[in-house]
Amino acid sequence: MCGPSMGFLGMLKMNREIVVIGGGAAGMMAAIAAAERGAAVRLLEPNERLGKKLNITGKGRCNVTNNCTVEELLAHIPRNGKFLYSALVRFTSADAMAFLEGIGVPLKTERGNRVFPVSDCAFDVSGALKKRMEKLGVRWEHDRAVSLLVEEGAISAVQGEKKEYPAAAVILATGGVSYPGTGSTGDGYRMAAQQGHTIVEPHGSLVPLVSDDSCCEQMQGLALKNVLLSAQNEKGKTVFSEFGEMLFTHFGVSGPLVLSASAHLRDWDKHTYRLSIDLKPALSEEKLEERLLRELREQSNRNMENVLSSLLPHSMVPVMCRRLGLSPELKANSLKKEQRRALLQELKHFKLSITGSRPVAEAIVTSGGVKVGEVNPNSMESKKVRGLFFAGEILDVDAYTGGFNLQIAWSTGRAAGIAAAEIKGEGEL
């Protein structure tokens, strides 16, 4: 270790390594980017294998990015998208796709421009990244970072549980606090805070929602396809509206639509929200009323539960009867006009009260983290500590489902790795 009297430049000459903390998508990309530019790179990861969270994304298929323009990417980043502009422009989704295919991961684009490996196997992605790191000489230490050591306002080393690692630069890519079983335990937040960084309180994004409506538990396991889900705040303003699939659970609702909606529902202590489900989005109210009248005519002597079964999933029929105050045995020809109108409204606007979200540990991504105003958007370098960089979910950025969060990981990891390699080069002058 060099002493303080040697100064920053002398310290860098002796400590030539870039240390990447975290072996997820952002960390591996950062390590690769730095190593490709000739830097000696050491990656610290306490898990038994790299890319543990990456391997479970997309239900094990790994939605690696979204095949769209930078503008479209930004439109799907509700929080601090402006901060990410530079990184996304310099390493676009097209660049990410070319990179992954270049290291041996053939890709395909599916509905919604979601990009997956042709093999539908996330392990192929993590395996290819690991192989690329090995080819570039990146050394993986099976160790957990405990703290950052700083001299004269610049990074000097990383203290691990096993030993100390001298460093010219450090890239924090430890993730957030979602899925803690994958290693996202908040270590990065703690280390960043120790160096004077502000941590925006983390909470779950892309997370199931909780409802106090008993119908959710009654319909648990029911998946609705091709519905229109909308979310309104306490003022009646629609903050989310999208077609897709959702799922009823014992605690509320989940599924792709709900996870996307959750990214728009923030500040639960200040706002209340409710969901509205259009069960027949392909039909206008007029067309649906025509169909309803036809069903009632054709089944005039049948019970309403039978009529409703032709319009709704089986498990939803008793729920709808209770909501409308209808006896399941009521004959279709006895249904009053006002009851028919009420049924029509329920089919087009099936409402659910939402009381909050599931714990952040159950979220796909973490919203919150290192305050982006304290980070250089071009390099991902800390404005407080020279040689400290950030990449991925540790930053206060998050996006919707569809490959956008992994694109953030690739782009910020790339930016941090390149900039860290340049810092190392300065020390070798």
Summarize the structure in words.
The protein has 429 residues and is of the alpha+beta class. The chain has two domains: 4-204 and 365-427, FAD/NAD(P)-binding domain, CATH 3.50.50; 208-357, no CATH class. The chain is built from 14 helices and 20 strands. The strands form five sheets. It has a seven-stranded antiparallel sheet with strand order 17-16-13-14-15-12-18. It has a five-stranded parallel sheet with strand order 6-2-1-10-20, with helices on one face. Strands 3-5-4 form a three-stranded antiparallel sheet. α2 links the parallel β1 (17-21) and β2 (40-44). Residues 1-15 have low confidence and may be disordered.
In short:
By secondary structure, the protein is an alpha+beta fold.
Key terms:
429 residues; alpha+beta; FAD/NAD(P)-binding domain; 2 domains; five-stranded parallel β-sheet; 14 helices
- Count of discrete domains: 2
| CATH topology call of the largest domain | FAD/NAD(P)-binding domain
**End-to-end CA span:** 19 Å
Continuous helix count: 14
**What is the level 1 CATH name of the largest domain?**
Alpha Beta
Q: So what's the overall shape?
A: elongated
Computed over alpha carbons, the radius of gyration is: 26 Å
Q: What fraction of the residues are assigned to beta strands by DSSP?
A: 15-25%
Secondary structural class:
alpha+beta
Question: At the fourth CATH level, what is the homologous superfamily of the largest domain?
Answer: FAD/NAD(P)-binding domain
What's the average pLDDT? 91
Assign the CATH architecture of the largest domain.
3-Layer(bba) Sandwich
The strand count comes to 20
Q: How would a crystallographer describe the biggest sheet?
A: 7 strands, antiparallel
Lateral strand order in the biggest sheet: 17-16-13-14-15-12-18
Poorly predicted regions are 1-15
Helicity level, as a percent range?
A: 25-40%
